[in-house]
Design goal:
Layout (H helix, E strand, L loop, with lengths): L3 H7 L4 H12 L4 H14 L10 H11 L7 H9 L4 H24 L19 E2 L5 E2 L5 H4 L14 H7 L3 H12 L3 H12 L3 H12 L3
Antiparallel strand pairs: 1-2
Helix pairs in contact: 1-2, 9-10, 10-11
Length: 215
């Protein structure tokens, strides 16, 4: 039988954390588990950035074709037909979604925040779940932990053009560049980048310094 820890590992949670959450659950402590599941669930709704063709586009077309609500497939197709770069489109959609899930997390943390804190009668309430014994449990701050839970490891920040271009290179070329950047061999990395991506050598050199800070 699959355990909670085993299922969490299947979801991509590392072993030590999965074991700790399973231990908490065995002792009827669900605060950290609830927080982890909520954060993971929020990020799971953000589009993928897979190269060379982001998978979310095919998925949205599939959903739109099945009359699933909320998906504007015609607008998506018009943008693609107009020549919009699929990776630019992905970056814009992802940014909008990250902002949305952050706002959702903040709303869960502070349901009354839109009433304003200057209103004397604003209630100080928090969402919670009830344990079997009837005691309330809260997951802790979601929006404070949202950035750290970013599967891309960028703490919610958009990827730069250099990072996106790097991700589209063949595996062996990425490995070579990573090795050169780790050694701070800027000139050699810039020459390799120029051959692969193009551009002025000075711009390639600046791109390598920028990329090194992101890898």
């Amino acid at each position: 039988m699959t355990t909670i820890g085993g299922r969490l590992r299947q979801c991509g949670i590392d072993g030590a954390q999965a074991d700790a959450l399973e231990h908490d659950s065995a002792n009827k402590k669900y605060d950290r588990l609830l927080r982890q599941l909520l954060l993971r669930g929020l990020w799971a709704d953000v589009v993928d950035e897979d190269l060379p063709q982001p998978r979310w586009i095919a998925r949205w077309r599939e959903l739109g074709g099945s009359d699933f609500p909320f998906i504007n497939s015609p607008a998506l197709q018009r943008l693609l037909d107009a020549g919009v770069d699929v990776h630019d489109l992905t970056d814009v959609v992802r940014s909008a979604q990250v902002l949305t899930i952050y706002n959702i997390a903040q709303l869960i943390d502070e349901p009354c925040r839109d009433l304003g804190y200057d209103l004397e009668a604003t209630p100080d309430v928090q969402l919670a779940y009830m344990a079997d014994a009837g005691a309330p449990h809260r997951p802790g701050s979601l929006h404070d932990g949202l950035e750290e839970a970013d599967p891309a490891g960028r703490h919610g920040q958009p990827r730069t053009l250099e990072l996106r271009q790097f991700g589209g290179l063949p595996d062996d070329l990425r490995a070579q560049l990573s090795d050169l950047l780790a050694k701070q061999a800027w000139s050699q990395a810039a020459v390799l980048w120029k051959r692969a991506v193009g551009g002025e050598l000075a711009h390639c050199l600046a791109a390598m310094r920028q990329l090194a800070r992101q890898l």
